Amino acid sequence: MKEFIKRVSNLLCIKSIVTLSLTYVFCRLAITGGITPAEFVAIFIVVINFYFEAQRNKKAETEEKEV
Question: How far is CA 22 from CA 17, 51, 67, in A?
Fold first, then answer.
């Protein structure tokens, strides 16, 4: 249960909120025809890539400090 609470609290950090908000906005624009599917995919890949790369770098820095 503690692990679940920790993961939920991590989702509430500002980077996660921005990533989820951008995902919602671009999905909405794609559905309503505000952007083309190709534009949606390009933007979505950049946002998601940034999010996961930041998470990976953060984990690597933590592991380096422990060693």
Answer: 9, 11, 36
Mean pLDDT of 27-41: 85
Helix (H) / strand (E) element for 47: namely helix 37-66
Q: Are 40 and 29 in contact (CB under 8 A)?
A: yes
pLDDT score for 35:
86
- Evaluate whether 43 touches 61 at the Cβ level (below 8 Å): no
Rounded Cα distance, 35 and 42, in Å = 11
Rounded CA separation 67/52 (Å): 23
3-state secondary structure of 13: coil
Q: Is the pLDDT of residue 30 over 70?
A: yes
